[in-house]
């Protein structure tokens, strides 16, 4: 049913306008709303989905408007060709600005957008060629053949058509592979990077996309108003556009339209009624701001969330079937896959990992154990490229890696989970797992917007569904990931790691929070992976669990590798006993108890 929302709304407004029910003033107001909605739509993707706050979108509207004004007035270019030029010029500027801006974080990012937003405003107002603060007038109307589009109702058909198309393209973008990558950045970048996503590249794509929508809005504005000047493209306008996106519902496509309508209608009504009530003065600015603050206080997630509720999970035509993806060739059993050689990591004066050397062979389960603070998670992060070693080497298939990054390790076939679950809470469970299969797809932003990635999406969905079945999560596949229990989140991370089609899986405390039956199923799955030739490196504090599974154990203590061997050897190793229990082996043999069987320990596992 939701697929008919846009065309029905488009036809309804169009019918009202053409039939004469709506006044010319109302039609002009709807034109303004539709044009502003384009800018707000870009901000929904940029700010609401991508998590990048921008106060400078009005500058990109100005770039689009001034480009078409200059080309049509001074050079006589067709407005339709000027549209392409506006998009290219604005997109090019956004690419250059974004290459620097999107790398900023925290409060520096919005401050950066304010800076270049103000710069463009003064640039437009001080260049003689652009008419300074008087701007450029006499912009020709849009034409279809020999017919000039001058009537407001005719123009409404165009603006609504453009808005309708932009909504479809944006929706297609967000539901595809690139869209998942964009949405994954809201809750941090670690998980996205671990499965091949390059955050700076994805952010730049979104930044340019939002700027292009603003350029189209500027092109429509210029030919609707038939003149341009710097006023509508300043930082105040940029703040209003951001407010539209936030008020309607940052992250909600239809929230952009709702927010634009509310801001424009509220401002218009206040300007009409307040002079009659309070007399002359700029009271509308004060009351306008107060009204918006009250609206946001009552609906912090945006008004569209109050109207429509939680967004449904993206639906697919099939969860399985004949669609398959290519798989990596499995190396022979006991082939060294991941090898750490004399790895060392120093944080200031603290040696977190010191001279750690071990290998993880194909078709084997290796356990990495040690008391709290032993350096296990740091070793994981060094092995997956999250941290850079102070010295030593990380090797894959006997080849030392010169540059180590999470994306490169994912490309090689290294999947991982995290000590504290790194999941996208607003995405469904199946979409979280589909993120793990990011590198098994190839569709880019353009292909997604045009809807040409559907077959590939079905393949990735089938992969994700299979991994959910293997981990027993298929019943909650369409639930928001943020609603799962801790044990389910652990299994979700395992499913996501398997969706990568890994040669080796690094699991950081996978059994933490699992019930007995869930641990039994996880153990069964890990044995299956071993049988399939997948290597497993596991950090785990449940000694019964890890010792019943591991073919080989590595023990760390204060960053040092103190022992390695099979479970029986590790259980009775004096250095391990001392590390865990704080006493010699003999004193525990005297009372008939050895560690890892319920005895209280000096430095806990939890």
UniProtKB/TrEMBL annotation:
Record-linked CDD domains: ABC_Mj1267_LivG_branched, TM_PBP1_LivM_like
PROSITE patterns registered for this protein in UniProt: ABC_TRANSPORTER_1, ABC_TRANSPORTER_2
Role summary: Involved in beta-(1-->2)glucan export. Transmembrane domains (TMD) form a pore in the inner membrane and the ATP-binding domain (NBD) is responsible for energy generation.
Ranges annotated as spanning the membrane: 33-51, 58-77, 83-101, 108-124, 155-174, 204-222, 242-265, 277-296
Protein name (record): Branched-chain amino acid ABC transporter ATP-binding protein/permease
Top-rank taxon: Bacteria
Gene3D superfamilies: P-loop containing nucleotide triphosphate hydrolases (3.40.50.300)
UniProt keyword annotation of Plastid present: no
Keyword terms of this UniProt record: ATP-binding, Cell membrane, Membrane, Nucleotide-binding, Transmembrane, Transmembrane helix, Transport
SMART domains xref list: AAA
Species of the source: Tardiphaga alba
């Amino acid at each position: 049913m939701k697929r008919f929302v846009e065309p029905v709304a488009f036809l309804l407004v169009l019918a009202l306008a053409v039939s004469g029910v709506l006044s010319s003033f109302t039609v002009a107001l709807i034109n303004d709303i539709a044009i502003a909605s384009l800018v707000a739509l870009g901000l929904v993707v940029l700010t609401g989905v991508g998590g990048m706050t921008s106060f400078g979108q009005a500058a990109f509207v100005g770039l689009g408007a001034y480009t078409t004004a200059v080309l049509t007035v001074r050079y006589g270019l067709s407005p339709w060709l000027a549209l392409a030029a506006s998009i290219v010029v604005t997109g090019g500027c956004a690419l250059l600005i974004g290459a620097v801006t999107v790398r900023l974080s925290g409060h520096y990012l919005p401050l950066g957008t304010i800076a270049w937003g103000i710069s463009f405003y003064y640039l437009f107002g001080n260049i003689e060629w652009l008419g300074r603060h008087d701007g450029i007038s006499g912009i020709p109307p849009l034409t279809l053949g020999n017919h000039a589009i001058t009537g407001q109702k005719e123009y409404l058909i165009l603006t609504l058509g453009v808005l309708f198309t932009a909504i479809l393209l944006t929706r297609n973008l967000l539901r595809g592979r690139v869209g998942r990558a964009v949405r994954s950045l809201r809750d941090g970048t670690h998980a996205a990077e671990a499965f091949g996503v390059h955050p700076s590249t994805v952010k730049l794509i979104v930044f340019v996309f939002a700027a292009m929508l603003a350029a189209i809005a500027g092109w429509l504005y210029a030919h609707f108003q038939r003149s341009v000047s710097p006023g509508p493209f300043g930082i105040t306008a940029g703040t209003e556009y951001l407010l539209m996106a936030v008020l309607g519902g940052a992250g909600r496509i239809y929230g952009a339209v709702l927010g634009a309508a509310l801001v424009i209608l509220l401002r218009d009504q206040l300007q009409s009624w307040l002079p009659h009530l309070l007399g002359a003065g700029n009271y509308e600015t004060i009351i306008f701001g107060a009204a918006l603050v009250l609206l946001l206080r009552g609906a912090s997630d945006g008004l569209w969330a109050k109207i429509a509720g939680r967004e449904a999970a993206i639906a697919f035509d099939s969860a399985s079937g004949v669609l398959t993806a290519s798989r990596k060739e499995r190396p022979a059993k006991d082939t060294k896959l991941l090898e750490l050689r004399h790895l060392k990591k120093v944080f200031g004066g603290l040696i977190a990992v010191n001279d750690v050397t071990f290998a993880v062979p194909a078709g084997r389960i290796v356990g990495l154990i040690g008391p709290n603070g032993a350096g296990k998670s740091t070793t994981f992060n060094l092995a997956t490229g999250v941290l850079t070693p102070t010295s030593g080497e990380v090797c894959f298939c006997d080849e030392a890696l010169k540059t180590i990054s999470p994306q490169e390790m994912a490309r090689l076939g290294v999947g991982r989970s995290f000590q504290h679950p790194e999941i996208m809470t607003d995405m469904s469970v199946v979409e979280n797992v589909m993120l793990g299969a990011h590198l098994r797809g190839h569709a880019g932003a353009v292909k997604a917007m045009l809807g040409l990635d559907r077959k590939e999406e079905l393949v990735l969905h089938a992969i994700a569904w299979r991994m959910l079945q293997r981990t027993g999560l298929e019943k909650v596949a369409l639930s928001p990931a943020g609603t799962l229990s801790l044990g389910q989140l652990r299994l979700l991370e395992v499913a996501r790691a398997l969706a990568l089609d890994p040669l080796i899986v690094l699991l950081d405390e996978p059994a933490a929070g699992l019930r007995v039956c869930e641990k039994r199923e996880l153990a069964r799955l890990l044995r299956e992976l071993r049988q399939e030739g997948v290597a497993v490196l596991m950090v785990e504090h449940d000694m019964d669990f890890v010792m019943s599974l591991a073919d080989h154990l590595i023990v760390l203590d204060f960053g040092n590798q103190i022992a390695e061997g099979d479970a029986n050897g590790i259980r009775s190793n004096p250095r391990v006993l001392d590390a865990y229990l704080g006493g010699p082996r003999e004193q525990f043999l005297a009372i008939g108890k050895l560690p890892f069987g319920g005895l209280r320990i000096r430095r806990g596992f939890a």
